[in-house]
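User: Can you predict the 3D structure for this chain?
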Amino acid sequence: MVTGIPKILIVDDIEVNLILLETLLRRENVSVYTATAGIKAIDLANKHEFALILLDVSMPVINGYQLAEKIREESMNIHTPIIFISAILYDQQSIKRGYEVGAVDYLTKPFQNDILLSKVRIFTKLYQQNKEIQQKGTALNESVIKYKQAEASLQIKYNFEKAVSLASARFSGNFDIESSIEFMLRDLIALSNASTASMLGFIPDMINMTVSGEVLHQPYPPHIIDEAREHLLKVFRLNKQRGDNLLVSLTDINGPWKPLQHEFNASDPFSLAIPVNMADEIAACLILTSCPGLGAQTGNDLRSFVVFGTIAGNALERNSTRRALELSEANYRSYIQNAPDGILVIDPRGRIKECNPAAANIFEIPARTLIDIHLLKPGLPFNMTGIAACFDEFTRKNLSSGEFYVQTQTHKKTIKADSTFLPGGDMIVFCTDVSAEREMEKHLIHNERMVGIGEMAAGIAHEINQPLNTIAFGIDNLMAAIETGKADAAYVKEKSGKLFDSIDRMRNIIDHVRTFSRSNDDYIPTLFSVNESIMNALSLVNAQYSAHGIELFTNLSPDEQVVIQGNTYKIEQVMLNLLSNARDAIEEKNANHKAPEEAGIYIS
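Assistant: Here is the predicted structure, written as structure tokens:
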């Protein structure tokens, strides 16, 4: 709606005429301005826009036609309708002249008031309608401009979101860091209409990372880049403490660079530097030079560009982590492949998932055949004794070490296995062929046993001498009885029984020594009395220890309380080793004293 009262200018050199016309027009909703001379009329026309001008033709100095021409020269009233008023009739020449200078109508004095008021109403109404149209047109133009600005802003935001989405997508999965950054810089050029886009590295790993010449349209000399790097890094670090992220420059990469909040004319092309952080360290920056496409954006919109630095920084961190993992995996693979021990990765069901060459050599089958074998299922390409029990010990009892036996086509091997669980439930087992070590241990144990038997020789001889003496005395008595005729059947039977008892005792001693001297690896565990094993061991060394002045004392629990299942001969071996160590300790102690003390070994 039009606001303001229409203005009407009346020009007449006769004051009475002005008063009459002004009085008449006061009836209308208009504002009346009057002038008695052309100079004043021109001055008013320069200051006000009039809806209508009533102009007397016959005036001194400047007539009506000349005044109309002067008024038309000013843009404010160039289209204002003019009604000429005159006391004389108009000829055709005058009418033509009037229309040439902008007249729209003529009135001859005296005129009828109603006619004048009717014309005034028409022209003021037209003026108001034109003004309303102009206002609507202006409002429409403003709306169009705002719409275009909003559309441009939405397009910019759409392009921005699209660039962010593309950048995020390019840095996902197994991406190539340099080509992905190059594509992101291309998107930034399209987004900002920048002349160049590049990434400038600050830390050692990033110094040599540059973008191809296609993107960096105007490559800079190395010394310019070095100077810019030093300047940018200094300003970034300084402004990071103040909380500023982006830097702007009204020139190119040379700077000077200042924080975004610094005063600058955004309508002029400017350059933008976006920090790229890795673990809170400024590793690089993205540089967009001469960006006319960013001039219409606000400071907050420009600050949104930090997201590209964040995306690039995260990508660089992931790339660095990925490279470290790849190197670690390569080292891991190298360690696995070159490890002297066999290595198996086994799932919870007992299936071999991975193996190294050493494991294939241990089992004497190719690695590709070893993989996918289920150790707990029948039909293995080799005989494995104890693997099920060993695997069960590992998985159920959480033990980390065990042994099993492998019978290949050419060898029977003893395999020592050490295990640990991996994240996810798999188990890694380190296999070592300890066949040679176990064989050596057997020889050492056998030698120790032989040495022990040698040390027990006196006791064994004593144990055998007793039944031998009994046999000798018994035979002498039997021969004497035969010679004297006293050896009847009952006597012979009695003496023979005693002789056979002594022979059985000797046989038992010899069998016991023979069994003790063997390895007993194939001995089947049985129930036995620990007391009996202890007494058997004591019987072998009792005489020897008595000869050394060492007395053996026992205080054993009842037999029924010490019955266990196992290998009685190994218990005897352990007991003999303990007794031997105790004897050595006693003899060493007595050697350090001038007067040896009475010695004894107590077993309970």
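The chain has four domains: 7-137, 171-322, 341-433, 445-603. The longest strand covers residues 412-421.
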